[in-house]
Amino acid sequence: MDCQYIVGGLATLVALVLLKILILGKNMKSTPNQTQTDNTVKSYRDSKSMSADDNTGSTDVIIVGAGVAGSALAYALGKDGWRVQVIEKDLSEPDRIAGEFLLPAGYLKLIELGLEDCVDGIDAFKTFGLTLHQNGKRLKLPIPLADFHADHAPAHGFHNGRFVVKMREKAASLPNVNVQQGTVISLMEEKGTIKGVTYKTKSGQELIASAPLTIVCDGCFSSLRRFLCDPKIEIPSSFVGLILRNCDLPQGHDHVHLIFADTPIIVYRISSTELRCLVDVLGQKVPSISNGEMATYLKTVIAPQIPQELYNAFVSAIDEGNMKAMFCRRMPTSPYPTPGAFLIGDAFNMRNPMTGGGMTVALSDVVILRDLLRPLRDLTDSAALCKQLEPFHALRKPMASTLNMVADALHMIFSSSSDPVIKKEMREACMAYLGIGGALSSRFTALICGLDHRPLSLLVQFSAILVYGIGCLLLPFPSPKRLWVAARLLLGASGVIFPIMKTEGVRNMF
């Protein structure tokens, strides 16, 4: 027991030293001042109209897709006076198991965009912490909102469709934002510059929409991304989603629960009466829902590992048969510089949905893009527009890369690792290290929630947990077997984090 405290103290000291270096060296690039161009924006708004007789055209920006990213961007640009046309394939309320959890950092971005009221009136549920479950042990980690001056920004769980509908309504309420249903067929290119899109209306009529800037954010199933980037999509697993009713979360109704079973299981509230349960199933091929294979798998393999308080509701949800499955996609950014066109959201960059960071990254990208466009009075000069938007990919790196790496590293170690020893030892090291409490556990939670979005903080936390795990293996006496396990743990963990860092771009991150 004394050795455990010694190792904990050493790991804590390492982490604190690295954090001190990090704090002293903190001098990261920030997004452009959000108020520096208010007068320009107002002047621009006063000089523009939505008239089709305007010689410069009736639209400044075309947005393809009206999900979270597209709707938020339409509202942000519309508020700044740009004339925006949004084309969405289906304007009915979405019914999906993705996009149901907004991190505190994402809610802060909603506030920055003036969209925080979109979580009102949809029975959204506020979440204030994370509870980890491992072999019958439970560890509660509160979200350190006060440490980041974000007391008014808890996480929110909700039905994705209700949230998206509110976002669309908010965007469409602006007189210079036109939201319409249609299917974009292709991008229109002229001399290497995108000039707009061709699309089909709901009635099947084929039309052309022209604008100096086209922003594609049509989600993970994007049909246009291949023209604007080099997509390399990985699908390590799938999430199977169920809705649990008439039950309460064990020891913390206002927490997200991460259950380390044979495969990770995530449970969180999406309304005052409903819990979302997501079960990670490795591989691209999952048991069939239609023929009952999935129900059998969930009842025989997963149900016995569910906390007792949730067991009956879990089995009832399986019997109801209302299960949905989605691929867990991972796609690093690899854009082509394309004059007149831009790519954001899941069409541009995806990470494992295990930590729910997708909407937060998208909203952060929207804020950055809005601020970059604010100094401009005219978008028709494609060369000037490209130069103005050039810093976007560097400015998004801290938030996007940190959330990407957290999600992908956690999933690769705790779920998809092919070495059961690494999975077991890292889970135990993580539980024991975070059980120390204090600033170290709060920093870990802050990273998952996007409140601390410094890649170096992630590297510090990852290293400290790894040091702690290896130290517990080697003390008090390192047997040959323990030395071998420690070596496998070090090599396996390094083989996860460093390739992810390389993919994200080390230079831009740091």
Automatic annotation (TrEMBL):
<dbReference type="InterPro" id="IPR006076">
    <property type="entry name" value="FAD-dep_OxRdtase"/>
</dbReference>
<dbReference type="GO" id="GO:0009725">
    <property type="term" value="P:response to hormone"/>
</dbReference>
<dbReference type="InterPro" id="IPR040125">
    <property type="entry name" value="Squalene_monox"/>
</dbReference>
<feature type="transmembrane region" description="Helical">
    <location>
        <begin position="456"/>
        <end position="477"/>
    </location>
</feature>
<dbReference type="InterPro" id="IPR036188">
    <property type="entry name" value="FAD/NAD-bd_sf"/>
</dbReference>
<comment type="similarity">
    <text>Belongs to the squalene monooxygenase family.</text>
</comment>
<dbReference type="GO" id="GO:0005783">
    <property type="term" value="C:endoplasmic reticulum"/>
</dbReference>
<comment type="pathway">
    <text>Terpene metabolism; lanosterol biosynthesis; lanosterol from farnesyl diphosphate: step 2/3.</text>
</comment>
<dbReference type="GO" id="GO:0004506">
    <property type="term" value="F:squalene monooxygenase activity"/>
</dbReference>
<keyword id="KW-1133">Transmembrane helix</keyword>
<keyword id="KW-0285">Flavoprotein</keyword>
<feature type="region of interest" description="Disordered">
    <location>
        <begin position="32"/>
        <end position="55"/>
    </location>
</feature>
<keyword id="KW-0274">FAD</keyword>
<feature type="compositionally biased region" description="Polar residues">
    <location>
        <begin position="32"/>
        <end position="42"/>
    </location>
</feature>
<keyword id="KW-0472">Membrane</keyword>
<dbReference type="InterPro" id="IPR013698">
    <property type="entry name" value="Squalene_epoxidase"/>
</dbReference>
<dbReference type="GO" id="GO:0016126">
    <property type="term" value="P:sterol biosynthetic process"/>
</dbReference>
<dbReference type="GO" id="GO:0016020">
    <property type="term" value="C:membrane"/>
</dbReference>
<feature type="transmembrane region" description="Helical">
    <location>
        <begin position="483"/>
        <end position="501"/>
    </location>
</feature>
<dbReference type="Pfam" id="PF01266">
    <property type="entry name" value="DAO"/>
</dbReference>
<dbReference type="Pfam" id="PF08491">
    <property type="entry name" value="SE"/>
</dbReference>
<dbReference type="GO" id="GO:0050660">
    <property type="term" value="F:flavin adenine dinucleotide binding"/>
</dbReference>
<feature type="domain" description="Squalene epoxidase">
    <location>
        <begin position="211"/>
        <end position="484"/>
    </location>
</feature>
<comment type="function">
    <text>Catalyzes the stereospecific oxidation of squalene to (S)-2,3-epoxysqualene, and is considered to be a rate-limiting enzyme in steroid biosynthesis.</text>
</comment>
<feature type="transmembrane region" description="Helical">
    <location>
        <begin position="6"/>
        <end position="25"/>
    </location>
</feature>
<keyword id="KW-0812">Transmembrane</keyword>
<feature type="domain" description="FAD dependent oxidoreductase">
    <location>
        <begin position="60"/>
        <end position="90"/>
    </location>
</feature>
<protein>
    <recommendedName>
        <fullName>Squalene monooxygenase</fullName>
        <ecNumber>1.14.14.17</ecNumber>
    </recommendedName>
</protein>
<keyword id="KW-0560">Oxidoreductase</keyword>
